[in-house]
Amino acid sequence: MNFKECSFQIIKNHNCPLYQNGDEFKVVGRSISLMGKPTCLTLMSDVAAALVNCQGMQTINNPGGAEHIFNCSGYQTSCPGTIRLTYLQTEKPVVDSIPKIESELQSIARDLNNFSIFKTLRDHEVDEIIPYFKIKEFKKGQIILRKGDRGENLFVLLSGEVEIIGDYGIPITKLGRGEIFGEMSLLTGNPVSTKVKVVEDTKTMCMSANYFRMILTRFSPLQMYFTRLLARRLAHSNIERSKQFSSGMSGNLSEITATELLQALNMTQKTGVLKLNLPKGDARISIWEGNIVHAEFIGMTGEDAFFGIVKQKRGNFKFEPGLPPNEMNAPKIADFMYLLMEAMNRLDEESSPSGDSEMDL
Questions:
Q1: pLDDT 10s digits, 89-130
Q2: How many domains in the chain?
């Protein structure tokens, strides 16, 4: 049976490991375009059944075809996710499904040949890819991507500057015109691993994950480009993190809690002074090989100061390697895990309805 042209679109997604909300699959004759996505045999069977059912429902009074919504049957194969799709037969064949190029992109298309991502491609290949991008602008201070986000877009910087921020608020690098970001999550399938913050007003070209996978399968030079870029990014990230930890690090408690920061310093057995500028006053924690040997905060010292500091949710911090001579080899004020667990217990008690809230001391 030759099927007429139609499309399927995901309108609801619950933990599907392969597809996302909004993904669209086109069927023409006996072929189906998955837009560069992996093939799910269960879904293909569901699509075939839907086609037979829906296209068999055409009548003289409904020549355009039937609309139909159905769920995949993945649960029958113990798949952890499910999706809901809608079917709609097109009334007229779509001769060219390439999106219309934006006028601004058309005017700068020739300049894009100087961007590293396009240098490996011929002019006609660049012209073929450009329509899949859209212009998107961001203001200074805006967060484009957050750690843990699902990777949904590839970005190419046309103007402005963004900063890549890693764990514990550590700046990794800055990117400018012609550079790209957002690709690592698209390539690995993992959530976004860093935050991307706009340093100055920025204009980008943005491509959806669906189109990105499609062009990646069609243009082998791009596959090589992204493979090399991924390796360079990972190496650079590791080097920058090593530099930051060896020379000290700074950040804001809005990006990492005090307990998470202290855990990181304990796990890496750091020796140095953690200085904090907090709304209620300055604080200081001395650390010897990951253990707390001194703490002071608004007239308190020792455990009381430590517990007061970890309650704080706002403020800046800076870790400086090395301790003054009088604190070298000083005894720890208490076992680190005891301090951490006691701090968590106190936070839980104060956040409960019956507790007296003293979160800001």
A1: 654 433 345 566 777 888 887 788 889 899 888 888 888 899
A2: 3
Residues 230 and 290 in one domain: no
pTM recorded for the entire structure: 0.47
Same domain, 276 and 316: yes
Query: DSSP 3-state assignment of 44?
Result: helix
In a domain, 97, yes or no: no
Which domain-ending residue is among 34, 59, 89?
Answer: 89
Which tokens in the block code for residue 238? 């590791």
Spatial separation of the C-alpha atoms in residues 163 and 345, rounded to whole Å: 36
**Nearest in space to 182 (alpha carbons), one of 121, 112, 133:** 133
Say if 361 falls within a structural domain. no
Would strands 24-29 and 171-175 be described as parallel, antiparallel, or unpaired?
unpaired
**pLDDT for 331:** 92
- Assigned domain for 359 exists: no
Q: With bands split at pLDDT 50, 70 and 90, how would you rate the model's confidence at 237?
A: low
Across the strands, what pairs with 244? none
Residue 75 shares a structural domain with residue 179? no
Average pLDDT over residues 45-73: 64
| H helical segments located in the chain | 41-55, 103-108, 123-129, 183-188, 209-218, 220-247, 258-267, 302-310, 336-351
**Residues 170 and 237 both lie in one domain:** yes
Residue 98 lies in a domain: no
3-state secondary structure 207-269: EEHHHHHHHHHHCHHHHHHHHHHHHHHHHHHHHHHHHHHHHCEEEECCCCCHHHHHHHHHHCC
Q: Which of 38-47, 52-61, 242-251 has the lowest mean pLDDT?
A: 52-61
Domain range for 128: 103-243
- DSSP state for residue 98 in the 8-state scheme: S
Q: Which residue, among 277, 239, 238, 237, has the nearest Cα to 258 in the 3D structure?
A: 277
Structure tokens at 315: 């403020």
